[in-house]
Amino acid sequence: MFAGNPLDRANHRRRDAAWIAAQLVSETSRFLPFWRLNVLVKAEKPELAWATAAIRSVQDARTGAVLLGVRDEVAHFAVDITPLHDPVTELGLAGSASFVELRAAAATLSASDSGIAAQGRQMLDWHARHRFCAVCGRATSVKEAGYLRECDECDAQHFPRTDPVVIMLVESGDRCLLGRQAGWPPQMYSALAGFVEAGESLEDAVRREVQEESGIAVGAVRYFASQPWPFPSSLMIGCMARAESSDVTVDKSELEDARWFTRADILKSLAQPGAGGVFVPPAVAIAHHLIRAWAES
Ligand SMILES: [Zn+2]
Predict the structure, then answer these.
(1) How far does the centroid of ligand 1 lie from the alpha carbon of residue 120, in Å?
(2) 132: CA distance to ligand 1 center in Å?
(3) How far is the CA of 169 from the centre of ligand 1 (A)?
(4) How many CB atoms lie under 10 A from the CB of residue 171?
(5) In Å, how far are 93, 96, 219, 250 from 259, measured between CA atoms?
């Protein structure tokens, strides 16, 4: 989920002002509307609901249309129509489409639609929260089809951010370490995770987070896969981590519990959620795939 974006991001065209201007008024271009970061989804089936260039008349002019990419020679944009108070009524969409929170929508969207929506949500959220220069505080202007904000006063350039998060399955022979936060559904456990800090390698971030949250020492770290997580701007970097100690000491400020589960318990839970005394996250989350890959290896 969120990782199957099929668009050609057309990076080389973002600085081509004439090409961008032509696509913005083209009858074939597609515009994906977001309202308060919720994405427009068709009512009759779980697909993104694309609009024509006419939607730009109600977009947030401070952001403008953000180029998502190109597919079959058709330009695709994201537009923020949050300035509308009641967009479904104002745009006459009742019964045909509605604005859906992306985590909820992702459960039913195709992988490719979820990937496109993830890119749009992350870009529009960044624009909404970075209207002013972090250097001098003056207003910034959008450049390069939405991939740059440049300060009107000091010319400082500001780029969309992506925040790396390591998420790791700690393994030791036939056991894996999972943790849970207070407030999660009962018996729900998942892989440990945490933000990568400045000047830190992924391997060091994995070792530090596991040590802090569980007291377990980690040796070898192996990359598994990654997943965009646009709430608001994370990139989940999945790793397998080999434990070098076994006594768990839970950091109660971060986790309610962390403990070892046997491969048999995890396989039972994957076959029938809740069996084996544990629920693991659903398949929309990379944690699910980390846990499954280990259990079935
Ligand atoms: Zn500035």
Answers:
(1) 26
(2) 8
(3) 42
(4) 22
(5) 49, 47, 18, 9
Closest CA to 33 of 10, 13, 58: 58
- Strand ranges in the chain using DSSP code E only, listed in sequence order: 30-35, 38-42, 66-71, 74-80, 97-100, 140-143, 148-151, 157-158, 163-172, 175-180, 192-195, 218-229, 234-243, 257-262
Write the pLDDT tens digit of every residue in 231-274.
999 999 999 999 999 999 999 999 999 999 999 999 999 999 98
For the question of whether the overall pTM of this predicted structure is more than 0.85, the answer is: yes
Q: How far is the CA of 63 from the centre of ligand 1 (A)?
A: 17
Around Cβ 89, how many Cβ atoms within 10 Å? 10
Q: Quote the DSSP letter at residue 254.
A: T
State which residues of the chain have pLDDT below 50.
Answer: none
- How much distance in Å is there from the Cα of 150 to the middle of ligand 1? 8
Dist CA 248 CA 245 (whole Å): 9
d(CA 207, CA 84): 47
| Dist. CA 34 → ligand 1 center (Å) | 28
Cα of 80 from ligand 1 centre, angstroms: 24
